[in-house]
Design a protein that fits this description.
The complex is a heterotrimer of chains A (491), B (319) and C (342).
Chain A lengths: L5 E12 L2 E12 L3 E6 L5 H8 L7 E6 L2 E3 L4 H6 L2 E4 L11 H7 L4 H10 L15 H14 L4 E5 L7 H16 L3 E5 L3 H7 L2 E6 L2 E7 L5 H9 L21 E10 L3 E9 L3 E5 L6 H8 L7 E6 L2 E3 L4 H6 L2 E4 L13 H6 L14 H15 L14 H15 L3 E5 L7 H16 L3 E5 L3 H7 L2 E6 L2 E7 L5 H8 L7
Parallel strand pairs in A: 3-8, 3-9, 6-7, 7-8, 13-18, 13-19, 16-17, 17-18
Antiparallel strand pairs in A: 1-2, 1-4, 4-5, 9-10, 11-12, 11-14, 14-15, 19-20
Helix pairs in contact in A: 4-5, 12-13
Chain B lengths: L2 H27 L5 H26 L7 H15 L5 H29 L3 H19 L9 H8 L6 H20 L1 H11 L1 H6 L4 H27 L6 H17 L12 H19 L4 H29 L1
Chain C lengths: L1 H32 L6 H26 L7 H15 L4 H24 L5 H21 L10 H8 L11 H4 L7 H8 L2 H19 L1 H11 L1 H6 L4 H27 L11 H10 L11 H20 L4 H25 L1
Helix pairs in contact in C: 1-14, 2-8, 2-9, 2-12, 2-13, 2-14, 3-4, 3-5, 3-12, 4-5, 4-12, 6-12, 9-10, 10-12, 13-14, 14-15
Classes of the chains: A alpha/beta (491), B mainly alpha (319), C mainly alpha (342).
Chain lengths: 491, 319, 342
Amino acid sequence: MSGQSSLLKIESLEKSYGPVLALKNANFEVLSGEIHALLGANGAGKSTLVKILTGVISGNSGSISLNGKPVGFSSPDDARKNGIAPVFQDPALIPDLSIQRNLALTGTDEKRFITELSAMGLNVNLNEVAVNIELPLLRMIDLARALSHDPELLILDEITAALPVDLAEKVISIMNSQKNKGKSVIFISHRLAEIEEICDRATVLRDGINVDTFAASRGSEERIVAAMLGDKNKVSNKLSDSKKIDRSNSVFLEAKSISAGKYLKDLSFQIRKGEVLGVAALEGQGQDLLFEILAGESKLETGEIFVNNKKVTLNHPRDAISMGISYVPGDRKSALMPQRSIRENLALTRFRGISKWGMINTKSEENQVDDAISSLQIDTRAKSQVKRLSGGNQQKVTIGRWVTTGFDLLLCFDPTRGIDVGTKQQIYDLIRKFADQGKSVLLFTSELREIQMVCDRAIVIYEGKVQADLSIDLCSEENLMNAAHGILVAK
Amino acid sequence: MNVIQLKRQSWNLAIILLALVLGIWRISQLPQFGAYEARTFVLGILPIALLSMGQAIIIIGGGINLAIGAEAVLINCLSARYMQDTTFTESVVLAIVFILVGMLIGALIGWIIAVSGIADIVVTLATSFLLVGVAMYVMPQPGGGVNQQFADLVSGKVPNFIPPLIWLILPIILIWIPLYRSKLGISMYAIGSSKEAAFLSGVNVKLTKIKLYAIGGLFAGLSGLVLTGITLSSSPFANISNTATLNSVAGAVLGGVALSGGVGGLVGPALAALILFFIPTILLAYGIDPAYSQIITGALTIFVVLFGGLLRKRTAGKK
Amino acid sequence: MRSFKVLDESRISKSMLSLFGILFILYIVTGLLDPYNFSIPAIGNIFYLAAALGLLAAGQTICMLTGGIDLSLAMIATGAAFIVSVKSSSGLPIALSLALLYCVVIGAINGLAVGLLGMNPLIMTLGMNAVLIGVFTVGVTTFLRGSSTVPDLLITLSTASIIDTSSWVSESVSADPRSWPVFVSIIDTLTWPFFIWALISAVVLFILIKTGLGRLIYAVGDNARAARLAGVKVWQVQTTAYILCAILGGMGGILLGGQSGAVALSLANSFLLPSIAAVVIGGTSIMGGIGNYKGTMMGTLILTSLSSLLTTLNSSEAVKQMIYGAIVLTLAWIYAKISEGA
């Protein structure tokens, strides 16, 4: 390691947004030929650091040097010219332009791009408009485009999140081959297993300061988590105390042969009262559509849904809500009103019917909102606009809205995506608490580990059907992964 | 070929078809159809077609210019005032100057939007007051004039319909096609489609915006100049600028430019201007109150946007 | 919950304060140019003139808070005034009901098209504007033929002081309002239009701040999908907003009609852009979800003071237009910078 030269060196970098210090005194070094993990809980300053490195914003003070020369990037284009190429969770391709015109926009060589893409075993029609391409493939296209510029430093920001396993593996092999060429990679991921497996070193940020840098290897998970959390409550990865027993309660909701869209074909399952039912599937198996159908947001083409043994028709989210079905969508942005206060966000459902359009009962509203804030431990320092909250607190607000409203079944779509470990644990606890109160939760998660931690039972969707219905003791990551790939699981 | 491209083609096809049907209808109303009538058609659509094209460029880039009509009115007034009693050469030089003035005004509006971060609609609304004020200052009363030779260069000596046709087609060939192929053209679609992705792809969003408003101003300048060449006078009125702006938006939208940005071209808006021109003239020929044509234009615009929106929703739903 | 309010209000009061500052500067400048403008009757006159614009801008505020815009508002206002004046021969209640019906129908069409059919509000209302101009142009010679004189009662309500002070001062003094006793001046400035505007403002503020509908107006403007996922039927909120907007516009139109005595088709034309400008100056986002009517009221007063300043300066229509545009732009710019810093 000592033989490697320093490629990128950041010294006492500082960045503030108004009164909020996002980065204070961050120091960070990437050696050439190194895969370096950048870790930190939400709000630790990771994304600010990445934005500065890629020229999206600039820091207030501190220095960045590349190959020993001080640099400062005025724009993403500038950063790219200096050999830094980022790939973000949301691909930076223009939706309405064809791939070809997208490549022309960044001055990417078409032949080189095709070579890079086919090296991944993928191909795409260059005349295809980006908006028509599925997200996982689009991310790989973005990656191939970045590689075509022969970057000295590749920055991968959460790109393996919700990526199918085969593609995630390709990303990892690309990182390795970059390393072998003597190039460097900064890898950001919430999946600690990946980091242990492939990264050389890891730097952990907390509250805008780098708190720990160490060689990553198997077993560094504890050190990472400890560094991320600091003196905050230690999080156990073990199950919470409430024991998962298959309560032979009555069925709350039953879906019979649901078909819709390209993906869902003849899908059936049941969820009982007081049960947390996990849903596992590779990306793009129609799980998002399934949740939207149950929430009344999308229509089903054929099939039936029964709630408490009565057939129901869900044409609008309001219908689902009146059945006691509440939906926490995967994308927090689609559930929140960013410019309004926590209070208005939490109390929104109170006014859903025209009969509630009259005068607001301030007292009862305040009580309800206060209850939700305290029971969910929402950090209310930035109350006036929820867009100022951290991701984890925003997610608590989306769940809290339903706590104030009351529900029988909570549909949670990947509620912990991009959320720090501490908040994750709080959300798991909350879900278990709901179950203890006799409520049902349908939980989709892209982190299979979570299923074993919070669910009572899990179904795995593959090719639009339920491929496996597993009791909790069979929900090992291996079993779930096998089923998600269509392999039968031995009972 | 994908769904979106196919849909875009079918939209253009429908526009061409509608323009054709209305054209035949209009021609069938006339006792005869020759060069004279063709010239009337082209002259009738030229100013609004140019304005719609300018608006289209700005809407594709994710903006909207509610001052575009005022820009045209101002250039109309400037040219009618200063090109009166000039020689042909002087007129041509002045024409070039005024087109540049149009570009400059456009660039200025774009610069204000880029620097201030205020929504396009607010900035252009305010500048529309301002520009009409300047126009009224330049020409307190309707009137003015232009060198006759220059007027012929724009509108052609009766019944020559070629010069106005050239004024219509040349901007498409000389400005639009090179623009579409250039980096600026791609950037235009990029910022209209997704500002963030465009920025991350290395597009200078602000500079692109300024350039697009400048090109929009160029088209508005052409439109104002052509109007002077056709009418041989100027009309410094706010309601004229407002109607022209409305028609330019209607023309762009009818021509297949999505108001959300990032989609469309310039040929559609030019054809749409033809449709917007035929409707009132056909009605007039039936002796119907021209006020009805305003109702129909309004209703047609609503219908077209509605139809386009529903189409988009349906294909999006299938995805 | 206390601290909630503190945070919200400190943000709002900051921008309100700067608006107040602008208004104050305008007032001083106008007064320095002509000391008459410092007098109570002159101040009363600002409120009197601001009332109609204030009502139109109230409608526009509601619309814009939902993320919409109503460019047909001027024709809605003109139409309502036109209907009232032409149909007043069949009795004022009938005429007013017809005007109300007209506003509700047009507002509902706008709102349903935007809410249910997903029309772009800019285009929908621009198109509606063209349709209405056509309809009324045709109507003047056909189904709306008749005298377009505004009935006396409405003229009184649009122009007169609430308490008639004419008998309070002697004949010789009454010609010059400046020589009136202060209390008479004050009572004299309490005109019906001012009263109506104040009353309606209270109602609008109440709806936006204290009712469920108000909450939903903000919610829909900020994120319509979130509102839908929370069980709100978004189209109902949008339709209601456009109907309220049209009704407020209609009231403003009738007020304008009363103030000008007779109704022409161009009655409210010149009020459309100011109605939007007042909202923008007042800090309501054109994208919806943030802003309030208090700001719009300040915006209305600023614009009205501005045009009285321009009248004081005896400027030509051209100069008026230029300065008006420049100031709207500058204020919007200043506001954008202030809210950026907040």
